[in-house]
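DM from R.C. (forwarded with permission)

"hey, sorry to bug you on a friday — could you get me a structure for this? deadline for the figure draft is monday and I only need the backbone to look sensible"
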Amino acid sequence: HGKQNPIPFYKKAKILCMTSTFEGFPLVLAEAQSCGTVPIAFNSFKALSDVITKKENGVMIEPFDFDMYFKELSSLMEDTVYFDTLSANCKLSVDRFSLESVGDRWIKLFHALVENMEKK
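My reply, with the result:
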């Protein structure tokens, strides 16, 4: 398909299956969550927990436990209440990555640094 805007694909999908061994910051997960697409991923890199809170806004699987991956993926597909809960939480949880939220954190950090420098 070439380079395309991924948002229409996330909106069409219900579940994002990530099987990466390593990611820096997995932006694809936050993008998917913003559309209510529930991510499932191996907990094989530290940044995963920055995006997914286990069984709240996605599913984290112990690294390369394929049986558990299959079991959890099946649960997401078959249990509509479980899926709908995670999907709704996904949409709410990505607010912490919004421009306003991140900007507020940077401003607080700068104010704290200035206060610290003024005390010295």
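R.C.: lifesaver. The chain has six helices and three strands.
me: no worries. Strands lie at 15-18, 38-42, 59-61.
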